[in-house]
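Dear colleague,

Thank you for sharing your sequence with our group. We've completed the structure prediction you requested, and as agreed, I am returning the results in plain text so they can be pasted directly into your records. Please verify that the sequence below matches your submission; if there's any discrepancy, let me know and we will rerun it promptly.
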Amino acid sequence: MKEKEYVTEPLKRLIHQPAFLVCVVVLGMCAGGLHAGARWLQWHFRKLEVPLRKSLDEMEESKLGSYKVVRKTKIENEEVEAELGTKDYIQWYLEDTEAEQGDAARYLMLFLTYYTGNPDKIPHVPDWCYVGGGGEVSSTENVMIKVPGIGLAAQGDELEVRVLEILVPGEAMGLEKRIVTYFFAVNGKYACTRTAVRRIQNNWRDKYAYFSKVEITFFGEGEITPQKSLAAVEKLCRQVVPILYEEHWPDWAQLRHNDE
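Please find the predicted C-alpha cells below.
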C-alpha cells in the first residue's frame, strides 16, 4: 500500500525554487536577528512591574495643608473593583477648610489609582465611565495648570489636565452637572489622554511600565464652572502631587539610572 504523501506536488516544486529557499532563510535570519537586535538596542517588548515606593493608603493627612479628610471609602462591590483592575487606589472625600461656606469648591473627591507592568491596559477615564453609567459629557477641555515640585521645572512647572463637564443621573428626575478633572503620571512623565498614556508606556527602551491616575471631582452645593474649578484643582494639585512624586510614585530617574 502506497504511503500517504504529505508534501503535495505544487509544494515540492515550490521547495525546489531558489527564490523560495532564499526567502525562508532570510525570514529565519530576521526572526533571530530581531531578538538579538532588541537585546543589543536594549528594546523591551515585555514590561516589568514596578511597585509604589509607598502605598497610596499611607499618604499622610497631616501634609494636606488646608484639606481635611472627611471620609475614606473603598469599592465594596467585588465585580466593580475587578473592573477597576487594581487594588492600589484611594477614594478620599476632602474639605478645603479655607474655602467659604457654600462655595462649590469646598468639597471634593480625590480618586487615585495605580497600575503597573501592563502597557496594553486601557486606562479608565471619566469620559467613558460616566457615559457608561447613563451620564452625558457636555464639554471637554485640556488645560495647563502650574504645579511646582513634580519634575516639570524645564517646562515651567506646567501640567496639562483634562476638564470635563458631565451631566449625571441625579436623585431627582433629570441630570445633575458635575465637573471632573484628571491626568496621569506615567513612566516619569505626565499625560491627560489614554492615547498618550499608551504611547509613553510602549516606548521600547523602557524596561518597566506604570501609570497612575489623579482624578478630582467636586460635589459641594452651588454652581461651579470648569473655569472656576481650575483654581481649586491647581490648589489641590500643588498640595497633593508633590507628595505623590516624592514619596509614592516610582523614582523613574533612579530606575533608568540603575539600568544603564
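Summary note from our side: The chain is about 30% helix and 30% strand.

Kind regards,
the structure core
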